[in-house]
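User: Hey, my collaborator sent me this sequence without any context and asked if I could get a structure. I don't really work with proteins. Can you help?
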Amino acid sequence: MPIAVSVTPFDIISIGVVDVIEISLVSYLLYRLYQLMRGTIAVQIALGLGALYLIQVLVRVLNMKILQALFSSISEVFVLAVIVLFQPEIRRLLLILGQNPLVRRLVNTTAQEEVVTETVAAVEEMSKNKIGALIVFQRSTGLRSYVETGEELNAEPSRDLLLAIFHGKNPLHDGAVIIRNRRIEAARCILPVSTTMKLSPQLGLRHRAAVGLTEQTDAFVVVVSEETGNISIAREGTLISKITVDELRTYLTNALMGSPDRQSRPAMANA
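Assistant: No problem. I've predicted the 3D structure and written it out in structure-token form, which is a compact way to encode the shape of the chain:
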């Protein structure tokens, strides 16, 4: 005798943790995409594409051969057409995703390593050729007021660009370069000069400006002496002079990666 079994939809549908994550992610992306498209012509385009999709489904259900062949040809370029039509919205969505703290944390390390490599290479070259330099790395304290005193660049830091900026015949070589979020924000910036009596009177304006800025902010500053070619760093109102290229790489890596810098050297009298 057959036994009737009652089956509910909940007995058939099984939702796991991965499914919940996937649904949440898709919902978030669709919501952000809607926010970006709202009030723009992209909404009308999206409605038109949705209508085409519904027509395609209807054509398949009714088994219309000719229209099915036509829609099959269109579907081959559909993805490319969507990318072209929604290029501004897609770009803005990717920008929003890139600004997410979790995503930035995942890609931060590699990008900062490139900044360290390019900076160290430039400083090593400037030290050999006795090219004066003053390079500021913004950390948690904003430096906008100092950026506005210079010439805004918004450029990716590289060895060649830093060497070009601090070349003696370049009008931007006087003053400081300020780097924030792996971008050179500005050059020829004016920094506050320290008046502390602890610094040697032999130190020049670059070194005093480096210390002055770190007395007021948590910035990390690299200085190259034009007279001796010596490399110095300033942090927390302290100047550490005559460091090697390898020491600079360690100090800079710790400063940009957020690692506690446990190295300690006394401030030197001469740069």
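In plain terms: The chain has two domains: 9-98, 109-257. You can pass these tokens on to your collaborator as they are.
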